[in-house]
Amino acid sequence: MNARHSRRGLLTAALAVPLLVACGGPVTAPAPSDGSSPPDAPSPSTKEPDPMTNAALLTAARDGDLSAVTAAIADGAELETRDSHERTPLLLAATQDHVDVATALVAAGADVDALDDRHDTPWLVTGVTGSVRMMRALLPAEPDMTIRNRFGGIALIPACERGHVGYVREVLTTGIKVDHVNDLGWTGLLEAIVYGDGGKPYQEIVELLIDAGADVNLADSNGVTPLAHARERGQDTIAALLRQAGGR
Questions:
Q1: How far apart are alpha carbons 73 and 50 in whole angstroms?
Q2: By CB neighbour count within 10 A (0-12 exposed, 13-18 middle, 19+ buried), where does 1 fall?
Q3: Structure confidence by residue, pLDDT tens digits, 8-22
Q4: What is the dihedral of CA 190, 196, 201, 207, to 10 degrees?
Q5: Helix pair angle (122-129, 89-96), 10° resolution
Q6: Is 36 helix (H, G, I), strand (E, B) or coil?
Q7: Which residue ranges contain the repeat ANK (predicted)?
Q8: Are 190 and 215 contacting, i.e. CB atoms less than 8 angstroms apart?
Q9: Is 72 helix (H, G, I), strand (E, B) or coil?
Q10: CA distance linking residue 111 with residue 34, whole number of Å
Q11: CB-facing half-sphere around the CA of 98: CA atoms within 13 A
Q12: Does CATH number 3.40.1260.10 belong to domain 145-247?
């Protein structure tokens, strides 16, 4: 329980924003919410960047102001400029789920793997927010799916913990490692059971992980298997799924 509370506290401090989940539909390039065509990539300026212009880009990205983002880039703002927590404009946009802004920044060449001072990246943040639209917006930048967050986890693991069914379904199609083990000794399957309530979303996630080839007998650092955890928590439906998949 201590590890869980520590994990929850850190995630809350890092992402004190509304978490928006969007899912469903084929994987296609995201369209702006107003139904218009996706924005063209803003053309970087040859001007020397200055602190005020960089600050304007950070603010605009955080606030989801696409026109201001485009203008700041045209005025010479640095795509990888950082705020006081080493967050880039793209990371701020991803955290706030400003998909149109993220799409424009990716098109302009923003780094989808840029780490902040808490070891989050734009890509890693999508596993916490569960935003399928943001995940789709970042995929063209070919994110490094092996980069670990401060808990040693990849994007799949927090999505399993938080019950983001749509996100888990789609991220499993990217080739992300289904049996990655974080520094706490948990896989996505274990986190769906240990941190979940056994309800329908977590049942669906367990099914998705099993179908993706998850090792149902990969135990935690104390040697406790997913099936043992499910039984201990009275998660009868999940326990049945694990037994059907060969869980012991």
A1: 11
A2: exposed
A3: 444 444 444 333 333
A4: 20
A5: 10
A6: coil
A7: 85-117, 184-221
A8: no
A9: helix
A10: 26
A11: 24
A12: no
Tokens encoding 106: 């990716």
How close are the terminal C-alpha atoms of the chain, in Å? Answer: 24
CA torsion, ordered 159, 93, 102, 168, to nearest 10 deg: 0
3-state secondary structure 3-20: HHHHHHHHHHHHCCCCCC
- Cα gap 99→64, rounded to integer Å: 8
Which pLDDT value is given to residue 6?
A: 45
- Calculate mean pLDDT across residues 53-77: 96
For residue 50, the model assigns a pLDDT of 81
User: In the chain, what are the helix, strand and coil shares in percent, each to the nearest 5?
Assistant: 50, 0, 50
CATH of span 50-140: 1.25.40.20
The span from the CA of 11 to the CA of 223, in Å, is: 26
Token pair listed for 115: 């780490």
The structural domains of the chain, with segments of one domain joined by +, span 50-140, 145-247
Closest C-alpha to 121, from 99, 101, 150: 150
For 106-126, give one letter per residue: b (16+ CB within 10 A) or e: bbbebbbbbbbebebbbbbbb
* Helices (H), ranges, 15-164: 51-63, 66-74, 89-96, 99-108, 122-129, 132-138, 156-162
What pLDDT score does 22 carry?
Answer: 36
Identify the burial level of 235 via C-beta atoms within 10 angstroms of its C-beta, where 0-12 means exposed, 13-18 middle and 19 or more buried: buried
